[in-house]
Design goal:
Elements (H helix, E strand, L loop, with lengths): L1 H13 E4 L2 E4 L10 H23 L1 H10 L2 E5 L2 H51 L8 E2 L6 E2 L26 E3 L4 E3 L5 E4 L8 H10 L3 H10 L6 E5 L3 E5 L21 H8 L3 E7 L9 H14 L6 E7 L3 E2 L5 E2 L4 E2 L8 E2 L2 H13 L9 H11 L9 E7 L15 E3 L2 E3 L8 H11 L6 E8 L5 H8 L4 E5 L5 H4 L1 H10 L6 E2 L3 E2 L6 E10 L6 E10 H9 L7 E6 L4 E4 L16 E2 H5 L6 H12 L4 E10 L5 E11 L5 E8 L4 E5 L12 E2 L8 H6 L3 H5 L2 E4 L2 E6 L5 E4 L7 H5 L4 H12 L5 H4 L14 H8 L2 H6 L3 H4 L2 E8 L3 E5 L14 H8 L5 E2 L3 E2 L6 E10 L7 H7 L1 E2 L4 E2 L17 E3 L10 E3 L4 E10 H10 L13 E4 L2 E14 L4 E3 L19 H4 L1 H9 L4 E14 ...
Parallel strand pairs: 11-12, 11-17, 17-20, 20-21, 33-36
Antiparallel strand pairs: 1-2, 3-32, 4-5, 6-7, 8-10, 9-10, 9-25, 12-15, 12-16, 13-14, 18-19, 22-24, 23-24, 24-25, 26-27, 26-31, 27-28, 29-30, 30-31, 34-35, 36-38, 37-38, 37-46, 39-41, 40-41, 41-46, 42-43, 44-45, 47-48, 48-49, 48-54, 50-51, 51-55, 52-53, 53-54
Helix pairs in contact: 8-9, 10-11
Length: 1207
């Protein structure tokens, strides 16, 4: 590593800057001969792209259809929206709470009544058969009675097991709400692997919980959209409804599941707490696997903490001499990156602590003074809950660490070296120290765990004198049960019997990110915890409810008002297919940028967290739309009663008056539209209901242009995104594709009054959102235009389409799209919307519909402009410092005159309809065309021919100054983020190796040039952010060698979830905190007159570069003349790798990322008087007060021997 850094420093010292150029000493020279050519090439390429877009998409025709459409203008009121959504969400959450309360009530009644009835029979049996052997089995230490010795002796109806195929329900069928085969008639039990299946508690719990099935079924009848319902028992098993088979691991074994360590169980049974774990990291812990047990105990405790808790871990040991006089340095340390305080037990901090615990190694002395002082200091510092304090101490209790650990330096004598004294520890001073530090509220309870050894006195007395418990652990198996007293205390101490909503977490049963309403169930017989009843809701469901009332640029979000963390927000990752439990992101990070707007922090957020209802208009709102940026916005927010959540809406200025297209009145000129599942028109059901349609479409299979696909050149096809459906889950997992096709075909082609047959989701048995059909009809005529294009023009065009804001997607030729396709989430759509005044090109990517490696050219479609007078235009024009911009419908001379940035001649009616007019600020859709990458690349390259015919792109020639070397002219197209769109190397990369041509930057290929563009010419700005929802990889993604087994078309992709088999694939991804680096073009440098010229001679390459923008697109042309890069091919050229990495974009894992995950709240629940009431619990605590138990046995044996001799 030292050689590496020294080489790099030497390299830097040999660099010099000449006229802003990055060069080696005495090697800079300018040979700029392509200046005129490059500017000409840029113009030719831009004209090609604009003509390609015009000839293939015919945006002007589609725009005309929307300009001439009838619009209904509606004044929207944020207050009304807020009240409607508040009522809807409160009703939604209330249904789930009612269901969980019913389960909890019934569970208590079943448990207590069955036990009392059995106990009566049991006592009578004992009274009448005092000398006989009882068939009853009674649980020790808890309520439980059964006459069965094995679970398999139970009736098959009562005992259905998710782990035993022969005990599964027989009537399981696929259900879209659960994404798997389930039984709506039966529940199943899942027993943790650590629990003996045939003990009394397991059999007894299976017996009495069977009675809950009637409640589960009743809840589903009252709320058909309800998800998982369950009861998690304190013995470690769960009864789950609807019944299902459990998931399997990569080896084909059923995965383990213990409800007692799940967030919904722990958070409900324990209440908020502060936990400090002290691990004895001394040398004596290194033997017999003791330290591994200690790490396991600490990990179990951390796993069972929730976001309402605070935690930290201390590794206790100090420095010492060894037996030969060598000094070994050790220091007691706090493991969290926040070393001077406790941290909130969020996923980020828990993961950080567990990773550091796993890396600990034992060594050093058993001196704990610093550890205990640090622990009690942490207990008294903010942030903390202040509700209850728990100190967990894990040790082997040894008062010495062996021969190698000496507490003195030793000395040399005439006879040789004499080691220092062996360390011998006085436990009394630690007992006294802890007693003296227990002068704060709340007093800390100490739970001591002795691993494998017999030193019980120190940890035992420490626990028993501090209201805790002492436990001996001889192995690390079944720790949940062996640590029963710890968990039992937490459940007993909590007086709360009310339910609560959890923080978000990933559902281990496959439904994505969840919230759970959970209720502790307490027996009325002995007042002890029986278990926890729970009902799940998916964030997908809540998000669908919130978005159902959105329009225009309106978006909603959900926040946990206890800590301000966002639960649902457009800026968060998808909640449907998460990698693991989400790391929380504070709402400030999503609704603010560079600490602006200030009023969000000072006015809006505090009101939200106080649970107030309100609204506020901001002129500098940072809105989470596709065109992320500051603008006028109004926030409306309200709490959801009986929950800890608050929801809010953000409305843009243009959303106050919303215009929506209406279905055309004259439908005589509109042709029939077809749903994208073409093959289903040929199904028996499709032929019966829609006879002759399949033949009419003339579907081609395995057309030379579309291998393995079904297409129709006569028609375009309609794809409706899942959000278009009233129940997206029902749509997505409905495998009756024929009926789905029939329903969609009838709806999109239905004629008549839309007020009667298109009322939207508020009506019974309605499948689609209101007004969906209007978009299908208005876009239909473009099909004729696309169909009439000459074949020579379209030979390399794969698809042409228009994607509308409502989720309606029309594409030509007709073909099948993947089931979950939503064009508004795709990069080409977002890019076009964010650059609405330009024609945009995407990065090359692998087409989801089976079209291979393509590039998308896209342009936006604007909402039809309103009729507006010149006087009104002047009144509405916004005054700026030096210019006035006009709203949609006003006359203009170019895009700079308009708020939308786009000026065109519109067919829309108006007083100046023959003049150029400003487009509206609202986007109604995006039209695009996919072209084969190879064809696009070829067309670009053929336009870059040098005037001297020798230095064209791709040409090779002798290098200036050294004729023995071969140089070349290398050309790239990059977008406004610095990502490569055209690269000479992309042509030879197979389409399936998408990671080798998608998301690659200019810095990744030509680091020296990118560095100049960033730091010398300021063409790009470096943007760095921290994301708490990053995705890291276990191993570097590798290239695929074959398509065999990989879904190659939409049909195979749709069926993947069914055909993947029982053994899941290896997942190479995991969630992590990342530093995201990206580059953003400086808009002020995007002028035709800008031509950036420079020379570089660095560790990777040398040459002269020319860079110029294509101003009507999102592209920038980069040409490198005299390109020489042989040195970059050297595997050991680390300087080249460094040069490229420092200007590359990407997301890089922050090793200690939790340091960036700051806790926003710095107060305590105790200080806010919000701690839940606690029960004073006395814990039985025992330990052997003899330091050497074997001595006691010898003493007893001696007494007995003496007694025998004397008597």
């Amino acid at each position: 590593m030292t050689i590496f850094l020294s080489d790099f420093l030497l390299l830097i010292l040999t660099f010099k800057f000449i006229n802003g150029q990055f060069c080696y000493t005495n090697q800079c020279s300018v040979h700029a001969t392509l200046t005129g050519d490059v500017q000409n090439w840029a113009l030719l390429i831009q004209n090609y792209i604009l003509k390609l877009a015009s000839d293939t998409m015919h945006r002007e025709k589609t725009q005309e259809y929307f300009d001439l459409a009838e619009y209904k203008e509606e004044t929207k009121h944020g207050d009304k929206l807020l009240d409607e959504m508040k009522a809807t969400l409160e009703r939604y959450f209330e249904y789930k709470q009612h269901a969980a309360n019913r389960i909890a009530k019934h569970a208590r009644e079943l448990h207590d009544s069955m036990y009392l009835a059995r106990e009566k029979v049991y006592l009578q049996y004992l009274a009448n058969n005092s000398t006989g052997q009882s068939s009853w089995r009674k649980s020790n230490g808890s309520l439980g009675l059964t006459q069965h010795k094995q679970l398999l002796h139970l009736d098959a109806d009562a005992y259905k097991d998710a782990d035993i195929p022969l005990r599964l329900p027989s009537n399981m069928t696929f259900h879209p709400h659960f994404k798997r085969n389930v039984s709506l008639k039966h529940s199943v039990v899942k027993i943790s692997d650590e629990i003996p299946r045939n003990n009394v508690e397991s059999i007894w719990t299976v017996e009495w919980t069977h009675g809950l099935e009637s409640t589960f079924v009743q809840n589903r009848e009252e709320d058909p959209g309800i998800r998982w319902q369950y009861f998690g028992s304190k013995v470690g098993l769960i009864r789950l409804y609807p019944g299902r088979e459990w998931d399997q691991n990569f080896a084909g074994f059923y995965n383990d599941y213990d409800p007692r360590v799940r967030p919904w169980y722990i958070g409900t049974t324990s209440g908020p707490k502060d936990v400090i774990i002290i691990i004895d990291c001394s040398e004596s812990m290194a033997s017999n696997g003791k330290f591994a047990i200690a790490r396991s105990v600490a990990t179990v405790i951390i796993n069972t903490l929730t976001r309402q808790d605070y935690v930290n871990v201390i590794c206790a040991h100090e420095s010492h001499w060894n037996d030969i006089g060598k000094w070994h340095i050790y220091k007691t340390k706090v493991l969290s990156c926040e070393q001077d305080k406790m941290v909130k037990a969020t996923l980020a901090y828990k993961r950080d602590l567990k990773e550091k615990i796993a890396e600990l190694k034992p060594g050093g002395t058993s001196e704990f003074e610093t550890a205990f002082d640090t622990a009690f200091d942490l207990f008294q510092r903010e942030p903390r809950t202040g509700c209850q304090s728990i100190l967990v101490f894990i040790t082997d209790g040894q008062d010495t660490d062996g021969e190698k650990v000496r507490c003195g330096a030793g000395q040399y004598t005439r006879s040789g070296y004499v080691p220092g004294p062996i360390c011998k520890y006085n436990w009394t001073r630690y007992w006294t120290q802890v007693k003296q530090r227990q002068q704060f509220h709340p007093r800390a309870r100490v739970f001591s765990y002795l691993v494998k050894d017999n030193g019980q006195i120190f940890p035992g007395k420490l626990a028993c004198e501090n209201d805790g418990h002492f436990t001996i652990l001889n192995d690390g198996e079944n720790l949940i049960n062996k640590m029963f007293n710890y968990f039992d205390y937490l459940s007993k101490a909590s007086l709360g019997t009310n339910g609560s909503w959890t923080s978000q977490y990933i559902d281990q049963w496959g439904l994505g990110i969840m919230l759970t309403y959970a209720i502790p169930v307490i027996s009325n017989i002995d007042g002890r915890l029986i278990g926890v009843a729970g009902v799940d809701v998916t964030l997908d469901d809540i998000e669908h409810v919130i978005s159902s009332k959105s329009w225009g640029s309106v978006y909603g979000f959900l926040v946990n008002r206890l800590d301000g963390d966002a639960i649902i927000h457009p800026g968060l990752k998808s909640t449907t297919i998460p990698i693991e439990d989400p790391i929380s992101t504070h709402i400030k990070q999503l609704e603010m940028s560079n600490n602006k707007p200030e009023k969000f922090l000072t006015d809006i957020l505090p009101s939200m967290l106080r649970g107030e209802k309100g609204s506020l208009r901001l002129v500098d709102a940072y809105r989470a739309t596709m065109r992320r940026g500051f603008g006028v916005g109004t926030y409306y927010w309200s709490p959801i009663e009986n929950t800890d959540y608050v929801f809010a809406y953000s409305l843009g200025e243009s959303d106050e008056k919303f215009r929506e297209v209406r279905q055309p009145k004259d439908l005589s000129t509109y042709e029939e539209s077809f749903f994208n599942l073409l093959i289903e028109y040929n199904s028996s059901k499709g032929r019966e209901v829609l006879p002759g349609k399949f033949e009419h479409m003339q579907v081609k299979i395995n057309d030379p242009k579309y291998k393995d696909l079904r297409v129709s050149y006569l028609y375009s096809s309609i794809m409706l995104a899942p959000r278009v459906y009233c129940d997206p889950s029902e749509y997505f997992y409905n495998d009756d594709l024929a009926q789905k096709t029939i329903n969609a075909h009838i709806y999109i082609n239905q004629r008549g009054d839309p007020n009667e047959n298109d009322k939207g989701c508020g009506e019974a048995k309605v499948m689609f959102h209101e007004n969906t059909r209007a978009y299908v009809l208005i876009s239909q005529p473009i099909e004729r235009v696309w169909r009439a294009r000459p074949s020579e023009l379209t030979k390399d065009i794969i698809w042409t389409y228009v994607g509308m804001r409502t989720g309606v997607f029309r594409t030509y030729p007709a073909h099948r799209s993947v089931r979950d396709y939503d064009h508004t989430t795709r990069g080409w759509y977002k890019r076009a919307v964010s650059l609405q005044d330009r024609t945009t090109a995407s990065m090359p990517y692998l087409d989801l519909s089976g079209g291979g490696k393509v590039i998308t050219i896209a342009q936006v479609l604007f909402e039809g402009m309103p009729s507006i007078s010149n006087e009104t235009c002047q009144q509405k024009a916004k005054d700026g410092s030096s210019e006035r911009k006009f709203p949609g419908g006003c006359p203009c001379s170019n895009g700079a005159d308009c708020l939308s940035g786009y000026c065109y001649q519109s067919a829309a009616p108006g007083p100046e309809h023959k003049q150029l007019r400003c487009a509206t600020e609202r986007i109604i859709g995006v039209t695009g065309t996919d072209i084969r990458y190879d064809s696009f690349h070829s067309e670009i390259m053929k336009r870059m021919v040098a005037s001297d015919d020798h230095r064209s792109c791709g040409s090779k020639y002798p290098c200036p100054g050294n004729q023995s070397k071969e140089c070349s002219t290398r050309c790239y197209l990059v977008d406004h983020g610095g990502y490569l769109i055209v690269d000479p190397d992309f042509v030879d990369i197979p389409a399936i190796h998408e990671n080798r041509y998608n998301q690659l930057t200019l810095g990744h290929k030509e680091g020296e040039v990118m560095a100049d563009l960033i730091y010398t010419h300021q063409l790009f700005d470096r943007v760095e952010t921290i994301t708490f929802q990053g995705t890291c990889h276990v191993t570097k993604p590798s290239a695929k060698v074959t398509l065999k087994g990989i879904p190659a078309n939409p049909e195979e992709l749709d069926n993947k979830y069914k055909n993947k088999g029982p053994i899941p694939q290896f997942i190479n991804e995991y969630g992590c905190i990342q530093d995201q680096v990206r580059y953003r073009v400086n808009p002020s440098r995007l002028k035709w007159s800008e031509l950036f010229i420079g020379e570089v001679n660095g560790p990777c390459m040398s040459g002269q570069y020319y860079v110029t923008p294509l101003v009507k697109t999102n592209l920038i042309l980069v040409v490198i003349e005299n390109y020489y890069a042989e040195q970059s091919k050297n595997f050991y050229n680390f300087n080249c790798k460094i040069q490229r990495s420092i200007v590359d974009a990407g997301a890089f894992r922050i090793i200690n990322g939790t340091c960036a995950h700051k806790t926003e709240k710095l107060s305590s629940l105790y200080g806010e008087n919000k701690c839940p009431a606690l029960r004073e619990v006395e814990i039985e605590c025992k330990y052997n007060q003899t330091s050497r138990p074997q001595f006691s046995l010898i003493f007893i044996f001696s007494i007995l021997l003496c007694y025998k001799l004397l008597f």
